[in-house]
Amino acid sequence: MNAPLDLEARAHSEHAQELRLWLRLLTCSQLIEKRVRAGLREQFDTTLPRFDLMAQLERHPEGLKMKELSHRLMVTGGNVTGITDQLVAEGLVERLGVDGDRRAFRVRLTGRGHAAFAAMATQHEQWIVDAFEGLAPRDLDQLHRLLGKVKQHQLDINARLDPDPIE
Amino acid sequence: MNAPLDLEARAHSEHAQELRLWLRLLTCSQLIEKRVRAGLREQFDTTLPRFDLMAQLERHPEGLKMKELSHRLMVTGGNVTGITDQLVAEGLVERLGVDGDRRAFRVRLTGRGHAAFAAMATQHEQWIVDAFEGLAPRDLDQLHRLLGKVKQHQLDINARLDPDPIE
DNA sequence: TATTGTTATACTCTATAACTATA
DNA sequence: TATAGTTATAGAGTATAACAATA
Known about the structure:
The structure is a homodimer. By secondary structure, the first copy, chain A, is mostly helical. Chain A has two domains: about 50-135, Arc Repressor Mutant, subunit A; about 135-165. Chain A is about 65% helix and about 10% strand. A two-stranded antiparallel ribbon of chain A has the order 1-2. The structure holds a DNA duplex.
């Protein structure tokens, strides 16, 4: 993996404050994400989208429908089918029928899937703790709070651009 | 594009503070990046890696070697070759010889490339200003400062894992 | 021998659109 | 007609490894 020398080169004008902030935000998330992806690949032979799908299912022991997964993971339906197929083939998740709608499935973690996710989540948590160990708890709080404003603003923009509210 | 409902579902344990911060950071950067990528595609028929490569060259009017681009963009050499080939084919960048080393090239923006980048950069800047318009200047400063700590810590970790200093 | 850059290849992730089956 | 999910396809983005030319 190369060193991130100069991604911030994109900043160049009178709105340099926002640009520099964005490029720094992007660099931070890329650096952390690269380590997480590499770790998932090397230690668990899996990928971030697969981990994220399993994380959603761990939160919803009763299972989630394909459409719900698609929404929550911010990807289109075909991708969820592909990732789910892989996980089904490995016995980590299963598709169950939905009462009253024979078109739909609930996708749920199997026992093996739950155990496998627990092992990955423990390691994942350690990577993240390491990534932020340089910051005081007060800094963590402040960052979380400020990023909350940023996140809410993005959601507002998306809602305005694409008035497709959450069911 | 779907709404990012519940990516923060990954957080689940006693280190919830770090996990929630990480997932929020990731969500923010994904939301902004998706809009930037979509805009570059729709309005300029280009991609983020191409934009980033041109941004590096704009900063270095004398040109950069392929290896330097690879380092700065955090991708491996083959990718830089591919992106550069596209941009050369469109007349936006050019490869020039390097005195004293016939293996290497300098890659440089052409006049057309410079003009094309200027138009994209103006629009890009507006997307980013919009993305952060909900925050007070004071918040922007604070975020920038805190993310500076995060970034530095990631660089320290990478330097420790991969002692491959910048030439 | 090491380095610069290219080529070839493969894999993951993604979006789009056409499709099947149910509703 | 509309919806849930699948399939097929194409393209972006990436890494790896083998290679040619030069140092």
